[in-house]
Sequence to fold (278 residues):
Amino acid sequence: MNIFEAVFLGIIEGVTEFLPVSSTGHLTIAEKLLGFKINDPDITAFTAIIQIGAVLATVVYFRKEIWDIITGWINGVTNKTSRTTQEYKLGWGIIIGSIPIAVIGLLFKDQVESTLRSLWYIGFALLLWSVVMYAADLYAKQFKHEKDITWKDTLLIGLAQCIALVPGVSRSGATMSAGLFRDFDRVTVTKLSFFLSIPALLAAGLLQSVTEASAISNGVGWGPTIIATIVSFFVAYAAVAWLLKFVAKHTFKAFIVYRVALGIVILLLLATNTISAT
Fold:
């Protein structure tokens, strides 16, 4: 992989990671169009590792809130009188909500890195999950806010996050839809999606960094991987700021239209043998 390809893929990751359009799906499509074998160990590892940049952008953007949650949780664990704070409850909620994807991700790691990397899965996932997002848009009542979050809410949203192991579904699309079905407002579900992404994506990226280090070295190379990660950080930081403002006043409509159009294009290209699935 050359530097220009690394920068290009880093931009795609940064732009799409927190939008409900599937960053893994977009990266896989882009990697395929650039001529990479998308189910090779180095490419699947690269795709996971550069997400670390986007996650760190979230940590920096929400650093004050994250610090409050961490300290609030620690205070609650060590001091019984501090267990009524929202930060303590949210801390436990994020921990509990992160458990499902850790378990499912490890159990189905091989399938996620091989079988599900097919563009057929991505094309259909883009279309099918758009129906779920449309339903979430249609039926969302949005009368609950950040103060109303419970561990049951984050557990259910965390379970929805597991569905996003299928590229094309979108982790943010899954978590935000689940949050809307739980009647939370759009800004709250978007922030929850950000918070739940931190342990999930950091763990996945770091695991791939360790287990596939030699594959990266002998494949795409650590230089391009680091460059793509850095680029994704800066682009994602801008994307986070934009998305919070956008969801406060808009529905999923624009994202749904885009997902459907992209899904149809991918499936047509596959059906006509213009591109191969892997």
